[in-house]
Amino acid sequence: MDKSIFTESDINCLVVLGPTAVGKTALAVRLAEHFNAEILSADSRQVYRGLDIGSGKDLDEYTVPYHLIDITDLSVEYSVFDYQRDFYTAFNTVRQKEKVPLIAGGTGLYLDAVIRVYDMKRVPENPVLREKLSSLHMDELCALLYTLKQEAGTEVHNTTDTETRARLIRAIEIETYNAEHKEKKANAEDENKKAAALHPLVKPLIIGTTFPRDMLRAAIRKRLKARLAGGMIEEVENLHRTAPGLTEGASWERLERLGLEYRFIAEYIQGRITSREELETKLGIAIGQFAKRQETWFRGMQKKGVHIHWLEHNGTHEDCSVECRFEQSLRLLRSEQG
Question: Nearest 5°: CA angle at 25, between 23 and 29?
Fold first, then answer.
């Protein structure tokens, strides 16, 4: 099969999405090889240099060019605004080479931002507001964020905004800025249209892949054991001692803000999780819960009009194989072409 589907239809890129631990990278690479595509990662932690094992970069799997991996360091609080900007640059670069952009990952907010084209702007820090918020407890900050969202007629896009104090304060800062600049919105419409014209038109065919619940849990456990055996704890220890972009190592707080593997392992190293067994149990449960949240997010995207073609799964291990899902993806693409 050639690239004719991308020249004879409205499709100009592919997306491979799904929850963690289902082999999205392997499937994306297989498709990229077939279509002479380049991969654009959609993973909120793989953008950071030094976060290798815990973020699951698996760079040895890439036999095709990739983008949006290892593009910043832990001195930066990389945001969805940053991702959207960098994504458009990478997307244009791939298209200019007359290759197919293939977006692959599981960070729903990043995927949604480029598929549904979020209208985003840079919001500066507000030191006065931050000082006022410094005395509030987490539950008070959560209540304030939800109130601001309700008044704006929007919703909390990313539940991780409510999981750490730093993210909560930043989310409140953004909502406050938006409310204060609401009256300027009409005057800015022309500027927004001009900015939107610079964005590439992303017309994707979206492939979703996941496993039945019991198989997904088993895959998560197997991968977690492999990563722990492969040096994931040592990776976090090393990042605390020295990290790219930082004169000193990453603080425990900074590592915990990265979530999941980095948060739980940081707690383990500090002695707040008392045994390797407890670490593996708690982290395995947390990753399983995260996978559920990812699938919930993707369902939310579908409710908002995003068409995701979910690959069928009959519950057998054969259907988990990359080759089986690759062939199913090709059949899907052929049907779209026809």
Answer: 125
